[in-house]
Design goal:
It is built from 10 helices and 17 strands. It has a domain of 223 residues: D-amino Acid Aminotransferase, Chain A, domain 1, CATH 3.30.470. The protein is an alpha+beta fold. The protein is globular and about 65 Å long. Strands 7, 8, 9, 10, 11, 13, 14 and 17 form an 8-stranded antiparallel beta sheet that branches. Strands 3-6-4-5 form a 4-stranded antiparallel beta sheet, with helices on both faces. The relative contact order is 0.15. It binds adenosine-5'-diphosphate. InterPro entries: TTL/TTLL_fam.
Length: 380
Protein backbone atom coordinates (compact mmCIF):
# COMPACT_ATOMS: atom_id res chain seq x y z
CA UNK A 1 0.00 0.00 0.00
CA UNK A 2 1.23 3.45 -0.87
CA UNK A 3 -0.48 6.03 1.36
CA UNK A 4 1.94 8.77 0.20
CA UNK A 5 2.04 7.85 -3.48
CA UNK A 6 4.18 5.34 -5.27
CA UNK A 7 7.73 6.26 -6.12
CA UNK A 8 9.32 3.23 -7.69
CA UNK A 9 7.68 1.02 -10.28
CA UNK A 10 6.74 -2.46 -9.02
CA UNK A 11 7.08 -5.89 -10.60
CA UNK A 12 3.61 -6.94 -9.49
CA UNK A 13 0.69 -4.70 -8.53
CA UNK A 14 -1.99 -6.39 -6.43
CA UNK A 15 -5.20 -4.39 -6.60
CA UNK A 16 -8.06 -5.08 -4.22
CA UNK A 17 -11.09 -4.71 -6.43
CA UNK A 18 -10.49 -3.75 -10.05
CA UNK A 19 -8.00 -2.40 -12.58
CA UNK A 20 -8.20 1.29 -11.85
CA UNK A 21 -4.71 2.76 -12.01
CA UNK A 22 -3.79 4.43 -15.27
CA UNK A 23 -0.34 5.41 -14.06
CA UNK A 24 1.25 2.00 -14.38
CA UNK A 25 3.65 1.67 -17.29
CA UNK A 26 5.39 -1.64 -16.62
CA UNK A 27 5.16 -4.81 -14.55
CA UNK A 28 2.07 -6.91 -14.05
CA UNK A 29 -1.31 -6.06 -12.56
CA UNK A 30 -3.57 -8.69 -10.96
CA UNK A 31 -6.70 -7.35 -12.68
CA UNK A 32 -7.78 -6.95 -16.28
CA UNK A 33 -9.45 -3.70 -17.26
CA UNK A 34 -13.21 -4.24 -17.60
CA UNK A 35 -13.29 -7.69 -15.99
CA UNK A 36 -15.78 -6.63 -13.31
CA UNK A 37 -18.15 -5.30 -15.97
CA UNK A 38 -17.65 -8.30 -18.26
CA UNK A 39 -18.64 -10.92 -15.69
CA UNK A 40 -21.67 -9.10 -14.28
CA UNK A 41 -24.76 -11.28 -14.49
CA UNK A 42 -26.31 -9.47 -17.47
CA UNK A 43 -23.11 -9.16 -19.50
CA UNK A 44 -22.20 -12.78 -18.85
CA UNK A 45 -25.71 -13.89 -19.89
CA UNK A 46 -25.46 -11.84 -23.09
CA UNK A 47 -22.06 -13.28 -23.96
CA UNK A 48 -23.29 -16.81 -23.29
CA UNK A 49 -26.42 -16.23 -25.37
CA UNK A 50 -24.30 -15.07 -28.33
CA UNK A 51 -22.27 -18.26 -28.12
CA UNK A 52 -25.37 -20.41 -27.56
CA UNK A 53 -26.83 -19.00 -30.79
CA UNK A 54 -23.64 -19.89 -32.67
CA UNK A 55 -22.74 -23.16 -30.94
CA UNK A 56 -25.88 -24.43 -29.20
CA UNK A 57 -24.48 -27.81 -28.26
CA UNK A 58 -21.09 -26.55 -27.10
CA UNK A 59 -22.66 -23.95 -24.81
CA UNK A 60 -25.46 -26.02 -23.29
CA UNK A 61 -23.77 -25.78 -19.86
CA UNK A 62 -25.35 -22.39 -19.16
CA UNK A 63 -29.03 -22.25 -18.06
CA UNK A 64 -31.53 -20.56 -20.36
CA UNK A 65 -31.63 -16.92 -19.26
CA UNK A 66 -33.47 -13.69 -20.01
CA UNK A 67 -32.53 -10.12 -19.19
CA UNK A 68 -34.98 -7.99 -17.23
CA UNK A 69 -36.69 -5.68 -17.72
CA UNK A 70 -35.87 -5.51 -21.45
CA UNK A 71 -36.73 -9.13 -22.24
CA UNK A 72 -39.70 -9.52 -19.93
CA UNK A 73 -42.21 -9.94 -22.76
CA UNK A 74 -39.87 -12.34 -24.58
CA UNK A 75 -39.52 -14.36 -21.35
CA UNK A 76 -43.30 -14.52 -20.89
CA UNK A 77 -43.87 -15.45 -24.55
CA UNK A 78 -41.16 -18.14 -24.66
CA UNK A 79 -42.32 -19.78 -21.44
CA UNK A 80 -45.91 -19.80 -22.69
CA UNK A 81 -44.81 -21.31 -26.00
CA UNK A 82 -42.81 -24.10 -24.36
CA UNK A 83 -45.63 -24.84 -21.89
CA UNK A 84 -48.14 -25.02 -24.75
CA UNK A 85 -46.02 -27.50 -26.65
CA UNK A 86 -45.10 -29.49 -23.53
CA UNK A 87 -47.84 -29.27 -20.87
CA UNK A 88 -45.91 -31.54 -18.49
CA UNK A 89 -43.09 -28.94 -18.23
CA UNK A 90 -43.32 -27.46 -14.74
CA UNK A 91 -40.39 -25.08 -14.58
CA UNK A 92 -39.05 -22.95 -11.76
CA UNK A 93 -37.08 -19.76 -12.41
CA UNK A 94 -34.53 -17.89 -10.36
CA UNK A 95 -34.39 -14.09 -10.50
CA UNK A 96 -30.97 -12.56 -9.79
CA UNK A 97 -30.36 -8.80 -9.64
CA UNK A 98 -27.51 -7.61 -11.84
CA UNK A 99 -24.37 -6.76 -9.92
CA UNK A 100 -25.69 -8.57 -6.86
CA UNK A 101 -23.60 -11.04 -4.92
CA UNK A 102 -23.88 -13.33 -1.90
CA UNK A 103 -27.44 -14.25 -2.81
CA UNK A 104 -28.54 -10.64 -2.39
CA UNK A 105 -32.06 -10.00 -3.80
CA UNK A 106 -32.37 -13.49 -5.32
CA UNK A 107 -35.79 -15.21 -5.37
CA UNK A 108 -37.47 -18.17 -7.03
CA UNK A 109 -40.70 -18.11 -9.01
CA UNK A 110 -42.94 -20.69 -10.64
CA UNK A 111 -44.58 -18.39 -13.16
CA UNK A 112 -43.38 -15.33 -15.11
CA UNK A 113 -46.28 -13.35 -13.64
CA UNK A 114 -44.61 -13.69 -10.21
CA UNK A 115 -41.77 -11.38 -11.20
CA UNK A 116 -41.71 -8.49 -8.78
CA UNK A 117 -42.14 -5.49 -11.01
CA UNK A 118 -42.54 -2.97 -8.28
CA UNK A 119 -39.69 -1.61 -6.23
CA UNK A 120 -36.15 -2.67 -6.80
CA UNK A 121 -36.42 -4.72 -9.99
CA UNK A 122 -37.62 -1.77 -12.05
CA UNK A 123 -34.65 0.29 -11.03
CA UNK A 124 -32.33 -2.72 -10.83
CA UNK A 125 -31.94 -4.85 -13.93
CA UNK A 126 -31.78 -8.59 -13.36
CA UNK A 127 -31.35 -11.94 -15.01
CA UNK A 128 -34.12 -14.52 -14.81
CA UNK A 129 -32.87 -18.02 -15.35
CA UNK A 130 -34.21 -21.52 -15.56
CA UNK A 131 -33.73 -23.05 -12.10
CA UNK A 132 -31.86 -26.35 -11.99
CA UNK A 133 -34.36 -28.49 -10.07
CA UNK A 134 -32.38 -31.72 -9.88
CA UNK A 135 -28.87 -30.93 -8.68
CA UNK A 136 -26.53 -33.61 -7.41
CA UNK A 137 -27.00 -33.94 -3.66
CA UNK A 138 -24.59 -35.08 -1.02
CA UNK A 139 -25.87 -36.03 2.43
CA UNK A 140 -29.29 -34.92 1.07
CA UNK A 141 -27.95 -31.36 0.67
CA UNK A 142 -27.51 -29.16 -2.39
CA UNK A 143 -23.99 -27.84 -2.88
CA UNK A 144 -22.07 -25.89 -5.47
CA UNK A 145 -18.41 -25.74 -6.46
CA UNK A 146 -16.16 -22.69 -6.38
CA UNK A 147 -13.20 -23.22 -8.67
CA UNK A 148 -10.31 -20.81 -9.01
CA UNK A 149 -9.06 -20.04 -12.49
CA UNK A 150 -6.03 -17.95 -13.37
CA UNK A 151 -6.34 -16.01 -16.60
CA UNK A 152 -2.64 -15.42 -17.11
CA UNK A 153 -2.81 -13.75 -20.47
CA UNK A 154 -5.44 -12.81 -23.02
CA UNK A 155 -3.17 -12.91 -26.04
CA UNK A 156 -2.10 -15.62 -26.29
CA UNK A 157 -4.90 -17.07 -24.20
CA UNK A 158 -3.34 -18.77 -21.17
CA UNK A 159 -5.59 -20.31 -18.56
CA UNK A 160 -4.76 -22.31 -15.43
CA UNK A 161 -7.33 -24.13 -13.32
CA UNK A 162 -6.75 -24.90 -9.66
CA UNK A 163 -6.75 -28.62 -8.99
CA UNK A 164 -8.81 -28.13 -5.87
CA UNK A 165 -11.70 -25.85 -5.06
CA UNK A 166 -14.42 -25.41 -2.48
CA UNK A 167 -17.80 -27.06 -2.16
CA UNK A 168 -20.33 -24.94 -0.37
CA UNK A 169 -23.31 -26.68 1.15
CA UNK A 170 -26.87 -25.70 1.87
CA UNK A 171 -27.98 -26.21 5.44
CA UNK A 172 -31.53 -27.58 4.95
CA UNK A 173 -32.18 -30.92 3.19
CA UNK A 174 -33.03 -30.31 -0.44
CA UNK A 175 -36.48 -30.75 -1.91
CA UNK A 176 -37.46 -29.96 -5.46
CA UNK A 177 -39.04 -26.52 -5.59
CA UNK A 178 -42.73 -26.25 -4.74
CA UNK A 179 -44.80 -23.15 -4.00
CA UNK A 180 -44.39 -24.02 -0.30
CA UNK A 181 -40.60 -24.19 -0.17
CA UNK A 182 -39.59 -21.61 -2.82
CA UNK A 183 -38.62 -19.04 -0.22
CA UNK A 184 -36.40 -21.38 1.82
CA UNK A 185 -32.98 -19.96 1.06
CA UNK A 186 -31.10 -22.48 3.23
CA UNK A 187 -32.52 -25.23 1.00
CA UNK A 188 -32.06 -23.63 -2.43
CA UNK A 189 -29.14 -21.19 -2.27
CA UNK A 190 -25.65 -22.45 -1.54
CA UNK A 191 -24.12 -19.06 -0.66
CA UNK A 192 -21.81 -19.27 2.32
CA UNK A 193 -22.81 -15.76 3.37
CA UNK A 194 -26.45 -16.88 3.70
CA UNK A 195 -26.01 -20.35 5.15
CA UNK A 196 -23.61 -19.16 7.82
CA UNK A 197 -26.68 -17.61 9.49
CA UNK A 198 -28.50 -20.93 9.67
CA UNK A 199 -28.32 -22.75 13.00
CA UNK A 200 -27.34 -25.86 11.02
CA UNK A 201 -24.10 -24.48 9.55
CA UNK A 202 -21.17 -26.74 10.47
CA UNK A 203 -17.65 -25.33 10.67
CA UNK A 204 -15.34 -28.27 10.44
CA UNK A 205 -11.62 -28.67 10.88
CA UNK A 206 -11.73 -31.51 8.40
CA UNK A 207 -11.76 -30.80 4.66
CA UNK A 208 -14.33 -33.53 3.95
CA UNK A 209 -17.12 -32.80 6.39
CA UNK A 210 -19.16 -29.75 7.34
CA UNK A 211 -20.83 -27.02 5.31
CA UNK A 212 -17.70 -26.06 3.39
CA UNK A 213 -15.46 -28.82 2.06
CA UNK A 214 -12.78 -29.21 -0.56
CA UNK A 215 -13.92 -30.19 -4.04
CA UNK A 216 -11.34 -32.98 -4.00
CA UNK A 217 -13.15 -34.57 -1.04
CA UNK A 218 -16.36 -34.59 -3.11
CA UNK A 219 -14.48 -36.15 -6.03
CA UNK A 220 -13.13 -38.85 -3.70
CA UNK A 221 -16.63 -39.73 -2.57
CA UNK A 222 -17.94 -39.74 -6.12
CA UNK A 223 -15.06 -41.88 -7.27
CA UNK A 224 -15.67 -44.39 -4.46
CA UNK A 225 -19.24 -44.70 -5.76
CA UNK A 226 -17.83 -45.54 -9.19
CA UNK A 227 -18.40 -42.15 -10.86
CA UNK A 228 -16.25 -41.19 -13.85
CA UNK A 229 -14.33 -38.40 -12.17
CA UNK A 230 -11.92 -37.97 -15.08
CA UNK A 231 -14.79 -37.19 -17.41
CA UNK A 232 -16.21 -34.73 -14.88
CA UNK A 233 -12.87 -32.90 -14.75
CA UNK A 234 -12.61 -32.75 -18.50
CA UNK A 235 -16.18 -31.37 -18.73
CA UNK A 236 -15.32 -28.74 -16.13
CA UNK A 237 -12.17 -27.76 -18.01
CA UNK A 238 -14.05 -27.30 -21.26
CA UNK A 239 -16.75 -25.30 -19.46
CA UNK A 240 -14.06 -22.95 -18.13
CA UNK A 241 -12.31 -22.54 -21.48
CA UNK A 242 -15.53 -21.98 -23.41
CA UNK A 243 -16.72 -19.43 -20.87
CA UNK A 244 -13.48 -17.48 -21.12
CA UNK A 245 -13.62 -17.66 -24.91
CA UNK A 246 -17.12 -16.15 -24.72
CA UNK A 247 -15.80 -13.29 -22.59
CA UNK A 248 -12.64 -12.49 -24.57
CA UNK A 249 -14.11 -10.20 -27.29
CA UNK A 250 -15.40 -7.76 -24.66
CA UNK A 251 -12.26 -8.10 -22.53
CA UNK A 252 -10.05 -7.30 -25.51
CA UNK A 253 -12.00 -4.12 -26.23
CA UNK A 254 -11.43 -2.93 -22.65
CA UNK A 255 -7.81 -4.03 -22.76
CA UNK A 256 -7.02 -2.20 -25.99
CA UNK A 257 -8.72 0.94 -24.81
CA UNK A 258 -6.90 1.03 -21.44
CA UNK A 259 -3.57 -0.37 -22.58
CA UNK A 260 -3.27 0.42 -26.32
CA UNK A 261 -0.75 -1.61 -28.28
CA UNK A 262 2.56 0.19 -28.72
CA UNK A 263 2.14 2.33 -25.61
CA UNK A 264 4.02 1.42 -22.43
CA UNK A 265 1.73 -0.32 -19.98
CA UNK A 266 1.57 -3.29 -17.67
CA UNK A 267 0.50 -6.80 -18.59
CA UNK A 268 -2.44 -8.25 -16.68
CA UNK A 269 -3.45 -11.49 -15.03
CA UNK A 270 -6.46 -12.29 -12.86
CA UNK A 271 -7.78 -14.95 -10.52
CA UNK A 272 -11.45 -15.67 -11.27
CA UNK A 273 -13.94 -17.62 -9.19
CA UNK A 274 -16.16 -19.98 -11.21
CA UNK A 275 -19.38 -21.09 -9.50
CA UNK A 276 -20.54 -24.43 -10.84
CA UNK A 277 -23.46 -26.72 -10.02
CA UNK A 278 -23.45 -30.43 -10.80
CA UNK A 279 -26.52 -32.15 -12.16
CA UNK A 280 -27.48 -35.63 -10.97
CA UNK A 281 -25.77 -37.07 -14.05
CA UNK A 282 -22.59 -35.12 -13.08
CA UNK A 283 -22.91 -32.60 -15.91
CA UNK A 284 -21.44 -29.28 -14.73
CA UNK A 285 -23.56 -26.14 -15.12
CA UNK A 286 -22.11 -22.65 -14.91
CA UNK A 287 -23.87 -20.37 -12.44
CA UNK A 288 -21.59 -17.37 -12.48
CA UNK A 289 -18.08 -15.98 -12.74
CA UNK A 290 -16.68 -13.86 -9.97
CA UNK A 291 -14.05 -11.23 -10.80
CA UNK A 292 -13.13 -10.71 -7.21
CA UNK A 293 -13.41 -14.02 -5.38
CA UNK A 294 -12.91 -13.88 -1.64
CA UNK A 295 -9.44 -15.02 -0.60
CA UNK A 296 -10.24 -15.00 3.12
CA UNK A 297 -8.78 -17.91 5.01
CA UNK A 298 -10.50 -17.17 8.29
CA UNK A 299 -14.07 -17.07 9.45
CA UNK A 300 -15.82 -15.26 12.25
CA UNK A 301 -16.77 -17.20 15.34
CA UNK A 302 -19.15 -15.92 17.98
CA UNK A 303 -17.41 -16.46 21.31
CA UNK A 304 -20.25 -15.12 23.39
CA UNK A 305 -23.39 -13.25 22.27
CA UNK A 306 -22.22 -10.30 20.18
CA UNK A 307 -18.49 -11.05 20.63
CA UNK A 308 -16.76 -12.30 17.48
CA UNK A 309 -13.27 -13.53 16.78
CA UNK A 310 -11.55 -14.43 13.50
CA UNK A 311 -10.41 -18.04 13.51
CA UNK A 312 -8.48 -19.91 10.80
CA UNK A 313 -10.54 -21.94 8.35
CA UNK A 314 -8.53 -25.05 7.36
CA UNK A 315 -10.61 -25.70 4.22
CA UNK A 316 -10.15 -22.16 2.88
CA UNK A 317 -6.49 -22.27 3.78
CA UNK A 318 -5.88 -25.54 1.98
CA UNK A 319 -7.40 -24.29 -1.26
CA UNK A 320 -6.69 -20.56 -1.36
CA UNK A 321 -3.09 -20.49 -0.17
CA UNK A 322 -2.20 -22.86 -3.02
CA UNK A 323 -3.99 -20.62 -5.54
CA UNK A 324 -2.18 -17.46 -4.45
CA UNK A 325 1.18 -19.25 -4.14
CA UNK A 326 0.96 -20.77 -7.60
CA UNK A 327 -0.31 -17.56 -9.15
CA UNK A 328 2.75 -15.75 -7.81
CA UNK A 329 4.99 -18.53 -9.08
CA UNK A 330 3.45 -18.34 -12.51
CA UNK A 331 3.75 -14.58 -12.82
CA UNK A 332 7.14 -14.47 -11.09
CA UNK A 333 9.04 -11.65 -12.86
CA UNK A 334 12.43 -13.19 -12.02
CA UNK A 335 11.35 -16.37 -13.74
CA UNK A 336 10.34 -14.33 -16.74
CA UNK A 337 13.72 -12.65 -16.87
CA UNK A 338 15.63 -15.92 -16.53
CA UNK A 339 13.80 -17.61 -19.30
CA UNK A 340 11.15 -16.13 -21.50
CA UNK A 341 8.56 -18.64 -20.47
CA UNK A 342 7.18 -21.18 -22.80
CA UNK A 343 7.13 -24.01 -20.36
CA UNK A 344 3.88 -24.22 -18.43
CA UNK A 345 4.99 -26.32 -15.50
CA UNK A 346 8.04 -24.85 -13.90
CA UNK A 347 10.69 -27.51 -13.36
CA UNK A 348 12.86 -25.07 -11.40
CA UNK A 349 10.40 -24.80 -8.55
CA UNK A 350 11.47 -26.66 -5.44
CA UNK A 351 8.65 -29.15 -5.09
CA UNK A 352 7.71 -28.91 -8.75
CA UNK A 353 4.04 -29.39 -7.89
CA UNK A 354 1.68 -26.69 -8.99
CA UNK A 355 -1.89 -26.85 -7.81
CA UNK A 356 -2.86 -24.72 -10.78
CA UNK A 357 -2.83 -26.83 -13.87
CA UNK A 358 -2.51 -25.37 -17.35
CA UNK A 359 -5.19 -26.09 -19.89
CA UNK A 360 -4.36 -26.45 -23.53
CA UNK A 361 -6.47 -24.50 -25.91
CA UNK A 362 -6.87 -24.97 -29.56
CA UNK A 363 -9.85 -23.26 -31.08
CA UNK A 364 -11.01 -23.97 -34.58
CA UNK A 365 -13.86 -21.84 -35.69
CA UNK A 366 -15.11 -22.52 -39.18
CA UNK A 367 -17.62 -19.98 -40.42
CA UNK A 368 -18.21 -21.54 -43.82
CA UNK A 369 -21.91 -21.26 -43.79
CA UNK A 370 -24.57 -19.27 -42.01
CA UNK A 371 -26.05 -22.48 -40.66
CA UNK A 372 -25.02 -23.39 -37.14
CA UNK A 373 -24.03 -26.92 -37.93
CA UNK A 374 -21.03 -25.63 -39.84
CA UNK A 375 -19.52 -23.83 -36.89
CA UNK A 376 -17.08 -25.90 -35.01
CA UNK A 377 -15.30 -25.16 -31.80
CA UNK A 378 -12.88 -27.84 -30.77
CA UNK A 379 -10.97 -27.89 -27.55
CA UNK A 380 -8.16 -30.23 -26.81
P1 LIG B 1 -24.75 -14.50 -6.22
O1 LIG B 1 -23.75 -13.75 -7.01
O2 LIG B 1 -25.72 -13.60 -5.53
O3 LIG B 1 -24.15 -15.54 -5.31
P2 LIG B 1 -25.46 -16.73 -7.96
O4 LIG B 1 -25.75 -16.66 -9.41
O5 LIG B 1 -24.16 -17.36 -7.58
O6 LIG B 1 -25.62 -15.29 -7.33
O7 LIG B 1 -26.63 -17.52 -7.27
C1 LIG B 1 -26.69 -17.73 -5.86
C2 LIG B 1 -26.99 -19.18 -5.56
O8 LIG B 1 -28.25 -19.53 -6.13
C3 LIG B 1 -26.01 -20.14 -6.19
O9 LIG B 1 -24.89 -20.31 -5.36
C4 LIG B 1 -26.84 -21.41 -6.32
O10 LIG B 1 -26.89 -22.13 -5.12
C5 LIG B 1 -28.23 -20.85 -6.61
N1 LIG B 1 -28.49 -20.78 -8.07
C6 LIG B 1 -28.15 -19.76 -8.90
N2 LIG B 1 -28.58 -19.99 -10.16
C7 LIG B 1 -29.18 -21.19 -10.13
C8 LIG B 1 -29.82 -22.00 -11.13
N3 LIG B 1 -29.96 -21.58 -12.39
N4 LIG B 1 -30.33 -23.19 -10.74
C9 LIG B 1 -30.22 -23.63 -9.45
N5 LIG B 1 -29.63 -22.92 -8.48
C10 LIG B 1 -29.11 -21.72 -8.79
Amino acid sequence: QFPFGRRLPCDIYWHGVSFHDNNIFSGQVNKFPGMMETVRKITLSRAMRTMQDLFPLEYNFYPRSWILPEELSLFVAEVRMIKDSNPSWKPTFIVKPDGGCQGDGIYLIKDPSDIRLTGSIQSRPAVVQEYICKPLLMDKLKFDIRLYVLLKSLEPLEIYIAKDGLSRFCTEPYQEPTLKNLHQVFMHLTNYSLNIHSGNFIHSDSVNTGSKRTFSSILCRLSSRGADVKKLWSDIISLVIKTIIALTPELKVYYQSDIPAGKPGPTCFQILGFDILLLKNLKPVLLEVNANPSMRIEHEQELSPGVFENVPSPVDEEVKVAVIRDTLRLVDPQKKKRKDTQCLLYPGIADGKLQLKPVKIQVKSGMKDKQHKHHSLKLS
